[in-house]
Amino acid sequence: MVVNNKFISYIESRVQSNNELYGRFHIGSFSKGQGLTLANTLRRTLLSEIPALLITKVEIEDVYHEFDSSEAIQENILDVLLNFKNLKLKLLHSKLTDQIFSKHKYTGYINYPGPGIITANDIHFPENVVPVDNTHYLATCSNTGIFTAKLAIEFKDPNNLIKLGSLNSSTNELLIHSVPKPVKQVNYTIQKLSNFPDQEYISLEIWTDGSIDPQTTLTYILKKLTTKFFQFANLSDKLQTPFVPDDLTKIN
Q1: Are residues 209 and 161 located together in one domain of the fold?
Q2: Is 59 exposed, middle or buried (0-12, 13-18, 19+ CB in 10 A)?
Q3: Dist CA 64 CA 171 (whole Å)
Q4: 3-state helix, strand, coil in the chain (%, to 5)
Q5: Between 79 and 158, whose confidence is greater?
Q6: What is the domain range of residue 104?
């Protein structure tokens, strides 16, 4: 798409191994030197500011802390929590916005009679939540046991984290410390426009873990950065007198 000599082009997309997603984009045009400034900002924010749909709490029948055990499964509870932590989930038919953090909370259930191997495919999810990998291993159920668990699922901001295994004292819920990092890698190069040697564009590559597509991450970050800078622009219009924060007056 091109507007006023500005463009964003979706050049290439493909599915990588382990269900990871790859996308390549061209963004321009910029005066010489401007592309690097924006490209570096995009890379840093894509790697650190994208939320993710995570399992944040697990309530397992007859389990009261992360060092407890369950007769229904072979693994210890801490290992099972780590398996839940590493499970990648995605939300169908919904755009990624800041409002999604509070509005989208879900509950999943497991009721697995042994014997057998419990995978992500054995979780009963809401209809618009799905695992990236249905075969993701969770635990091995014993011959006579029934593994029962309740899962709290929600979008989490990278700056709002909790510790793995921390117990919610009001219930038997075990809190899972998961760092939202759906974007695995970002690369960029600065290219010259062939017809305009004084102009340049960014060739941007994004790899995700499969829980979100690269185009959605780029759209989200561009809107977030625009909103953030616009807030400061509005503030600057209202400045009337010089302002020095108290901490700066103590320097020297």
Answers
A1: no
A2: middle
A3: 9
A4: 25, 40, 35
A5: 79
A6: 52-175
